[in-house]
Each structure stands twice: as structure tokens, then as C-alpha cells.
Amino acid sequence: MNAAPLVSVIVPVYNVAAYLPQCLDSLVNQTLKDIEIICINDGSTDDSQIVLEDYARHHKNIIILQQENQGQSVAKNWGLQVAKGQYFGFVDGDDWVREDMFRLLYEVASPIQLDIAMCMVLSYSEKKKAFFEDKFFSEKPIKSQHRKLFSIKNAKKEVFYLSAICCDKIYSRRFWISHGFMFPVGLKYEDIYTFVASITRASRMGVVDYQGYIYRRDRTGSTVNTPDRKIFDIFPISAMIINDMADHSLWEELKGYLAHFLFHRQYRFLQSMYHSLRAEMFDEILSFWTSKDAKLQEMLRAAPLVCKQLDQMRKRGFRRWAIKNNIRTSLITVLRYAELEQLVWNILVKARLHRSVYHHRMVSDHTC
Predict the structure, then answer these.
(1) What is the distance between the alpha carbons of residues 255 and 154, in angstroms, rounded to a whole number?
(2) Cβ(87)–Cβ(113) below 8 Å
(3) Taking the domains of the chain in order of start, what are their residue ranges?
(4) pLDDT of 335 over the 70 cut
(5) What pLDDT, on the 0 to 100 scale, is given for residue 238?
(6) How many distinct helices (H) and strands (E) make up the chain?
């Protein structure tokens, strides 16, 4: 392998020993041979390190880095510091790729010096052991731009409908370094931030109408399937994106599209997240968009459809919204938005009444 490989593949690894062989097999068997595979073990407590070391013994282009558990952002940023490839991409340790993905992307990107080249995503359900078409990954903008050279200037609407993950793309190392992109540390959904930052600054992008990346859904222990409060990181991530975009030369033209993009990301999480947190997410969405922040208000004025949806949410409230959208909610969540205090009070009053009647009956029976 050359000192400067054509493509560097960065693989964050955290407790994915059961899936890691499939991921690494798909990488070491790439038809593009001049690649380096940089695996960052993010403090795994399972056998992930053993798997990595076994593969590294047999494949000289595998580089292993180890760190204490600090999250995917730190792992990715470290991998970027080590990467030497002309282009680089990312693969999550529990996913895998088609064996010709990086060759096809590189052959599209290199001849015309694209900043970003991307393909399509195919989802795989771990529970059902089957592939499926995932509405989260839109095909329409991909197909409309197939093998066309485009940028944010001539495809403003389309780029915001592209998948916001980094794993279905390769990036020019020169382009990335020149803009100083970094994954935000300590926050989930780091891909969304770098997605907006990069696609709005790339002058040359290209798409291949090809499902090269396999995205594993429903995996036990996955960072996207764990019911924790990190899902609310979407709000500081959204705020960071707005702050970053506020000085963009195309702010006036992009602010409406950006409002749609951020709102619908948050709304998708509301629809698909664990039911015990939905009521709080509902409140947080309304709170975020009713902020007095000047830039955010500019965005809303440029996005009347977002304003309409927010107005409907405010008028309906969570309980009516949940019923209308046929979303399952836990009893405590519904009660919280169904005059809980009054309901509890009524229960207590009835309980006291029953005790009073029971006591009266006992006294009467004793008297007789």
C-alpha cells in the first residue's frame, strides 16, 4: 500500500464484537485495494479489541487506536487526525458496506475532484433479519442528482433532503481540512452538525444511485436504540447549526430550507422515539421554536409550513396530538397532559367517600 492511500476508512468501535467481523470483512474485501482502515476502540468492554487485533494480524492496512470511552465524536476526530487518504469515509462498527462502495465513490469523486461523493443507504432490521426500504433515507433527491455535479447553489432544496449521516459519503481530505470541520464533542447526533456544515460549503458534490451502505436497525445496545436522555441533544445541535450558518454567505437563501430541515429532524424523533419521553420532547420542540433568538425567528418567517405545524401542535397539546397521530403513549405520559392534578384529586375524594360509607356501615352494623 502506498504511503498516501486513496481512501481512509474510519471505524468507531464500541461493544460491537458480535457484528464487527461482518463490518471488517466488508472493508478488507473492498475492490478498491489502496485503502487504510482506521479502527478506534472507544473503551469497549466486550471482545471488540480481540476481534480487531485478530483482523490486524492478517491485514496490514488495519490500524487500531484505543481510547477510554469518550463517545463517537472523539473517536471520529482522532481517526481524522491519523487518516492519510486523499479521501476518507466512515463506517459504524455494527454496519457494513458493499464490497465495491468505496471504489465506485472514489471513481466518481477523484477525476473531477469532488469535495463530497455519496451513495444511497439500505436498512437492515436486526430483529426481522431482513432488508427494508427506510423512509428515513430519502431516495428522490439522490436519483434526481445521479452522477450530476451539484452544490448548494444550484440544488438548495435537494441537499437538505439527503441523508444526514456521514457513513454514506466520502470527503476530500483537502476540503475537510481547509474548513476545519470537527465533530462536536459530548453530544449525540454529531453527524447532523457536520452534514449541514459540509454540504453548505462544498462547491462540488456528486451522487451515485447505488445502495452501498448497509445501516443496521434494531440492534440491542445500539446508541440509536437506547432510551436515554441523549436524544435531547438534537436541540443544542440545532442551535450550533443555526449559529454556524448565521454568517454563511447564502444565509438569506438557505434559512427557510434550514428551518424545514431542523424542524423535521426534531419531529421525526418525536414520532419514533421511546414513548416515555415523547411528551417532554413535544414540549422541547415548542420551547425551541418559540425562542426570541433573532436568527431563529428569521428562519420561521421564511418557513410558513413549519409555522403552521407548530401552531397546530400548540393548539392541540400533546394528548390530542398523540391521539391524532395514533402514537402509543404510556399511561403516566397521557395522565401528565390530562389534568393530572384534578384527576388525582377526584380519585382521592372518591376514596375518602368510600371510606366514609364503609365506616358508616360498620358503625351501623355494630349498633344493631
Answers:
(1) 15
(2) no
(3) 1-225, 227-337, 338-367
(4) no
(5) 98
(6) 15, 9
Top pLDDT among 323 and 87 is at 87
CB atoms within 10 A of CB 352: 10
Name beta bridge partners: 213.
Answer: 97, 121
Beta strand 130-132 with 116-125 is antiparallel
| Alpha carbon distance 141, 157 (integer Å) | 9
How are beta strands 62-67 and 116-125 bridged, if at all?
Answer: unpaired
Confidence of residue 228 (pLDDT cuts 50, 70, 90): confident
Query: Residue 184 has what DSSP assignment?
Result: P
Q: Is the dihedral of CA 186, 329, 136, 250 positive or negative?
A: negative
C-alpha cell recorded at residue 218 = 434494531
Model confidence at 290: pLDDT above 50: yes
Q: Give the CA dihedral 143, 144, 146, 149, nearest 10 degrees.
A: -150
Which residues in the chain belong to E strands, given as ranges?
Answer: 7-13, 35-42, 62-67, 87-90, 96-97, 116-125, 130-132, 169-172, 205-217
For 186, list phi and psi in degrees, rounded to 5.
85, 0
How many whole angstroms separate alpha carbon 200 and alpha carbon 113?
17
Determine how β-strand 87-90 pairs with β-strand 62-67. Answer: unpaired
Superfamily of domain 1-225: Spore Coat Polysaccharide Biosynthesis Protein SpsA; Chain A (3.90.550.10)
Q: How far apart are alpha carbons 88 and 166 in whole angstroms?
A: 10
Structure pTM? 0.85
Query: Which 3 state secondary structure label does DSSP give 166?
Result: coil
Cβ atoms of residues 84 and 5 within 8 Å: yes
For 287, phi and psi rounded to 5 degrees? -65, -40
Phi and psi at residue 31, in whole multiples of 5°? -70, -20
Which is more confidently placed, 69 or 329?
69
